[in-house]
Amino acid sequence: MRPLVLGPGSVPVIDSPDEAARDIPLTVLSAALHRQGPDADALLKALATALKGLSADDETTASIFIGLTEQGLGETPAADLWRQIVAADLSFFQSETARSLRAEGRAGDILLLLERRGVEVSEEDRARVRGCGDLDVLGVRFTRAITAVSATEVSAPGEDEPRG
């Protein structure tokens, strides 16, 4: 039995955003292994660009990669740079803008589902669905839309909605 040992010599430096986007897990590993090399800055910027390319729906995935990268960088100057990049460039995944975009998308999904099911949606009901910015409530309303016979039934407050 021979253990597989990975080091800077066996993992490429991935400093191209396009290449990083093709294999984010390998890029995270590359960042950890090359954290003290001369290409660390370019590698981290390429990784950040790749992560920004993920959709808002991939926030959990992006957060995992952000955390793994930070752990892999340890206490190095590259870790300081990564924290700066995350604070400035990747804050989108936790921002109010991102939450708002996800809410708009979920509201659009609800309206599309109702439309495809042949449920009539008045302008008032449409405004009520689009006016909700709470992702948890929208999740409940999406589930209701699967079987609802009216749009009012979807957006009426109910016991199944989370309490804020």
Shape category: elongated
Q: Give the beta-strand count.
A: 0
Q: How many helical elements?
A: 9
- Helical content band: 55-70%
- Name the poorly predicted regions: none
Sequence of secondary-structure elements: HHHHHHHHH
Alpha-beta classification: mainly alpha
Share of residues in strands = under 5%
Task: Note the main sheet.
Answer: none
Number of domains: 2
| End-to-end Cα distance | 56 Å
Q: Using only CA atoms, what is the Rg?
A: 22 Å
Condensed summary:
The chain is mainly alpha-helical.
Write out key terms for the chains shown.
2 domains, 0% strand, 164 residues, 9 helices, mainly alpha, elongated
Question: Which secondary structure elements does this structure contain, and how are they paired or packed?
Answer:
Elements: H1 17-22, H2 24-33, H3 40-52, H4 59-73, H5 77-89, H6 96-116, H7 123-130, H8 135-145, H9 151-155
Structural overview:
This protein is an all-alpha fold. It has 2 domains: 17-94, no CATH class; 96-155. 62% of the residues lie in helices and 0% in strands. The chain contains 9 helices and no strands. The protein has helices spanning 17-22, 24-33, 40-52, 59-73, 77-89, 96-116, 123-130, 135-145, 151-155. α2 (24-33) packs parallel to α4 (59-73), α3 runs parallel beside α5 and α6 (96-116) packs parallel to α8 (135-145). It is elongated. The N and C termini lie far apart (56 Å). The mean pLDDT is 86.
